[in-house]
Specification:
Keywords: FAD, Flavoprotein, Oxidoreductase. Helices cover about 30% and strands about 30% of the residues. It is α/β, with parallel strands linked by helices. Bound molecules: flavin-adenine dinucleotide and nicotinamide-adenine-dinucleotide.
């Protein structure tokens, strides 16, 4: 009998975890497994705020896919997915067309701009490792240009961060440490630099523990970061952003850099599949399959999973994406063996939000943590993700060991 073909799209946390767990339990003769990803490396999306601020180099936040897959069990193809034909059971890429018996879509997130004019064009988004490198170099360019210019435009040194969710706050934490370094490197007086976070909701980190939020805001303000809260960004232009301050009150902030970190959606390719979706996220069945499509699994940020206790979606996180990979690998094997699939149940350990490499806030196993202890935990979480994908050798190669 012909071996079934399993095609996994995307080597992010969800896709790579699926493949790594499949290769642990599948014999070479059970299925033909192909992983397609646009780069020959995996990048740690959860470290991209560091690469964007320049506190980590881009090469530090990525590793070769070849280092974690077993070539005798998984074929890796470097290709960019261009279309997914669910009815025809095939995927078109810039490097060929691939048929499948079972498909796993793990193509990750894109920044959500909610149709706000100008953001797509004029704001930068912490979207992937290349975009992170671009943000870092854009900020450095602004500092270098200010330094060179005879007639100086101080707005070059203004950085606006849209959104005070986890991504915005983690990026601000890195900027808090990076700006003094940049000032030294580019001969810029610190008082000329302005870092402003603009948040639409009435609080920073909406929904998070208020005491921890107060800690985070205080520590970021002490590093010179300003907040404008309850004031949505309503437009971006080449010069900066327009902020709604009141009923008919607007303020324009001139800025050399605008980083948009105000939420995510799934990969736009999902919207072309014909599978029902909301902002490119598919409300999956309990076993992570797309409704009505028994041969298609969705993992990571392209999946929308409802927390039935509160009847709201779980926030899309790497923590959940990696766990989904474990279940999807099991369920693929069950389908091949004609067995029942299992329900995915997230095992949430908590969340830690870094405020730079030396500081963080978090709730871990129900307990609040702050400061160096929380920062240490964050590094352990980061190292654990490496361990789950590539074992101890990957932790040794890429892990974070600079304990303060
Ligand atoms: P991704 O990690 O986005 O990976 C998608 C993969 O698909 C990538 O390899 C990409 O190159 C590839 N791909 C995309 N399009 C194509 C295409 N057309 N063709 C081929 N390949 C393609 N979550 C946590 O749990 N903890 C954290 O501390 C945390 N920190 C974060 C910090 C930041 C700055 C950000 C932005 C997010 C953070 N998150 C965190 C959220 C987490 O990163 C995401 O939930 C997670 O990355 C989703 O994993 P994924 O597998 O769906 O996709
Ligand atoms: P988010 O949706 O969590 O936060 C976006 C923020 O932007 C919200 O506070 C929202 O009110 C604000 N916003 C929306 N529109 C706005 C506007 N027009 N003007 C100003 N502010 C606006 O998105 P995120 O921070 O990108 O996080 C995405 C996902 O990744 C979440 O699930 C998050 O939990 C996860 N994440 C986790 C970590 C971590 O665990 N350490 C770090 C980063 C991201």
């Amino acid at each position: 009998m012909k071996r079934p073909t399993i095609l996994v799209l995307g080597a992010g946390y969800g896709g790579l975890s699926t493949v790594v767990n499949l290769q642990k339990s599948v014999g070479v003769d059970v299925a033909d497994i192909t992983l397609i990803n646009q780069n020959d490396y995996h990048y740690e999306s959860t470290w991209l705020h560091e690469a964007s601020a320049g506190t980590l180099r881009p090469d530090q936040v990525r590793y070769d896919i070849a280092d974690v897959i077993k070539a005798d069990k998984v074929k890796f193809v470097k290709a960019s997915v261009e279309g997914i034909d669910i009815a025809g059971k095939q995927v078109t890429t810039n490097n060929g067309v691939f048929s499948y018996d079972y498909l796993v879509i793990g193509l990750g997130y894109e920044g959500e701009t909610f149709g706000i004019p100008g953001l797509d064009k004029y704001a930068l988004s912490i979207a992937n490792v290349k975009a992170a490198r671009h943000i870092r170099e854009h900020i450095e360019y602004q500092f270098a240009t200010w330094s060179m210019d005879e007639v100086k435009d101080d707005s070059r040194l203004t950085i606006v961060v849209g959104g005070a969710g986890f991504t915005g706050i983690e990026f601000l934490g890195e900027l808090g440490n990076r700006v003094p370094e940049l000032c030294k490197e580019f001969d810029v007086p610190k008082e000329k630099v302005r870092v402003l976070c603009v948040e639409a909701a009435p609080m920073v980190l909406p929904g998070f523990d208020p005491e921890l939020v107060e800690y985070a805001v205080g520590h970021l303000q002490a590093k010179g970061i300003e907040f404008s809260i309850g004031t949505p960004v309503v437009e971006a232009t080449p010069e900066g952003v327009k902020i709604k301050k009141g009923e008919d009150e607007f303020e324009f902030v001139k800025a050399g850099t605008v980083v948009w970190a105000a939420g995510v959606r799934g990969n736009r390719l999902i919207e072309q599949t014909g599978i029902e979706n909301m902002r490119a996220r598919v409300k999956v069945e309990k076993d992570m399959r797309a409704p009505g499509h028994n041969d298609v699994f969705i993992v990571g940020d392209c999946a929308l999973l409802i927390n039935e206790e509160i009847n709201r979606p779980y926030p899309p996180t790497a923590q959940i994406a990696m766990q989904q990979g474990v279940t999807v690998a099991k369920n693929l094997l069950s389908l091949i063996n004609g067995e029942e699939t299992e329900t995915f149940v997230p095992d949430l350990k908590g969340s830690v939000c870094s405020l730079g490499e030396d500081d963080a806030i978090g709730v871990v196993f129900g307990k609040k943590v702050t400061g160096a202890k929380a920062a240490f935990m964050k590094k352990m979480v980061d190292n654990r993700a490496l361990y789950m994908m590539g074992g101890p050798s990957l932790v040794v190669k890429k892990g974070k060991f600079n304990v303060l």
